[in-house]
Amino acid sequence: MYEQASHALLNEILIALKPEIGNMRLRHFYTRLGANFYAIHSLFHLLYGGRTDFKEQMVSLVETLAFRYIERVPHLRRSDLERERDYNWFMSQKWVGMALYCDRFAGDLKGLRTRLPYLQELGVNMLHIMPILDCPPGHSDGGYAVRDFRNVDTRYGTTEDVEALSATLKRRDMLLVLDVVVNHTSDEHEWAQRARRGEKKYQDYYYVFDDREMPDTYEETMPEIFPTTSPGNFTRDEAMGKWVMTVFNSYQWDLNYHNPAVLIEMIDIILFWANKGADILRLDAVAFLWKKIGGTCQNEREAHLLLQLMKDCCQVTAPGVLFIAEAIVSPSEITKYFGEDAINAKECEIAYNAALMSLLWDAVATKNTKLLNLGIKNLPNKLERATWLNYVRCHDDIGLGFADSDALLSGYDPAQHRRFLVDYFIGRYSGSPARGLPFGENSETGDARISGSLASLVGLESALENNDEGAIDTAIKTILLLHSVILSFGGIPLLYYGDAIGMLNNLEYLADPYQRDDNRWLHRSRFDWSKAERRHQHGTVECRIFSALKRMIALRKEITAFADFDNRQLFVVDNPNLLVFSRTDQQNSRNKVLVICNFNVEAQALLIAPLLPHGLFQQGSMKDICSGERITAENDALMIPPLSCYWLAD
Ligand code: GLC
Ligand code: GLC
After folding, report:
1. pLDDT per residue over 429-483, tens digit each?
2. Under CATH, what is the fold of the domain 184-254?
3. Catalytic pick among 108, 141, 268, 284
4. What pLDDT is stored for residue 633 in this prediction?
């Protein structure tokens, strides 16, 4: 759009930029800046238009974009151009992700390079390395309390190691995902230190208050994230003699995006890591970016404006780089992180599908799919060119974030049902084989989340202890069933590093004074390579899980109907133990895959009549892609074995 005010300003800025960077090859930069400047200017004005230094800040933002563009090396610029041309590249079914800690998985970044064959053997080609930036040795929140955004923690390696890893991954057609912790810094970050020493400029980077008046007002409506380990949202800093907002741990200071300098710094950091070769950046805790008195300080409209700005700016300098929104919020809020009021994703192209994750755990505990079906049915539509990150579990606790309205429709009292689920997974419910721990139990609200490794939560740990073959089989089937959903649902599946070999809970964290109060470390153990070796030994638990997953992953990559183009149709069937949906190939609508999952421990029948009008089961049988077997309807019904999944095609 041609808009005079922003156009005039753009001209002024470009003229001012010229002397310094005049002879750089900026053709693509100028085109992209021209295309996005109206949006950037408007958003920046919405947020900061009232400030007297608005223009100065705007200039500083554009300079940042230009300088980072000049630094962007030719092969990354080429990849930007390629991805601009092939703009749906990340919607393809060929991507399969894994999140891992580089130290716990492979020692350090160099070690990680030597472990890539393991990932490739499994079929993983998108690697989310958990945060690796410089953190205080103790209070690090697993890497999410960053002390220096531009340096890799010496325990893991160097920035050059990241670049080398990125190059290695590229050669193997693998993607690198890195974190940018946009919401807060460690209290040992230079900005925090300088704020502490009384520098007003840096106090303005955070939410700093002289007394409790403002904090108390905020607290009236802000929930607590870590009620047991870090209650409240403010911490008194004795050295500074002031209160500072700390939504997560007391040593994680929330950045104040009311100050445009903070946004510009963060965009600079985003582009810095884009320039080090990250293909995708995971933006941490994005729901929390904007704080406002009288609200929960989550999902505020301004948080979305900030993300749009980050995206628009990234598209100018490093358009090939995607964002993942880590917004573990209610289903109705999550999809907003793709962007609203647009057709194509305008904030983050990818978002954690926390809704599906929590619904899957519900199905495991209840052994039915009532809530799962409703939750999927009521999941808001995504924008185009936006895709889910589908996961069974990640490094964090499992929150039961499904919609209360869906729980009610399923016939549950939401609070009671959540209590049941927590009890089920922490083994407080009689008959449950799960071995989790409650995380963040809030005695006031009754809320709680769940920690524990996938294998331990689905009963593998207790089954092995009891030497119970039947229970071992059930646990393995459950692990595979959950993965069969994330592999077929639509979106990028994200595996968690120990899960493909059934790693159990690990209590080592209790010996570490910095970890023992945070039981998420229960499921963040050192990867056990000798256990992984057993994947080659026929009949072992490791082999049974690993080989089945490996096969499903390989098959997924071949099934073009699994690419994510909002091409999923959910079938509401009358058996409440089944999840049934079809996926249709974008290019050829006759090419359909029917996914049927049985979450019950008994075999379940599915009537095929409702499927027939959709061109499914026309010949009375279909082929299960996973087993290669033909599945034939008898008496107009199919029998789905316990805890299993079919991917059916003609
Ligand atoms: C994100 C991370 C989590 C961390 C929190 C605070 O949610 O996933 O591990 O504790 O942000 O940074
Ligand atoms: C994340 C999530 C929350 C999670 C927490 C730490 O930002 O919003 O659900 O429990 O951080 O694990």
Report:
1. 999 999 999 999 988 888 899 999 999 999 999 999 999 999 999 999 999 999 9
2. Oligo-1,6-glucosidase; domain 2 (3.90.400)
3. 284
4. 94
Q: Is the CB of 284 under 6 A from ligand 1?
A: yes
* Ligand with an atom nearest the CA of residue 143: 1
Residue pair 319/84 in contact (Cβ under 8 Å)? The answer is: yes
Ligand 2 atom nearest to 327, measured from its CA: 8
Residue 184 and residue 205: Cα distance in Å, rounded? 10
pTM of the model: 0.96
Spatial neighbors of 524 by CB under 8 A, at least 6 apart, are 101, 104, 142, 395, 506, 509
Does residue 190 carry a catalytic annotation? no
Which pLDDT band, with edges at 50, 70 and 90, does 344 fall under? confident
Distance CA 335, CA 464 (A): 40
Three-class DSSP category at 149 = strand
User: How far is the first Cα of the chain from the last one, in angstroms, to the nearest whole number?
Assistant: 48
Q: Where do the CATH 3.90.400.10 domains begin and end in the chain?
A: 184-254
Nearest ligand for residue 328 CA:
2
Architecture of domain 567-649: Sandwich (2.60)
Tell me, rounded to whole angstroms, the distance of Cα 176 from its chain centroid: 14
> Residues with Cβ within 6 A of ligand 2?
225, 285, 328, 396-397, 399, 449
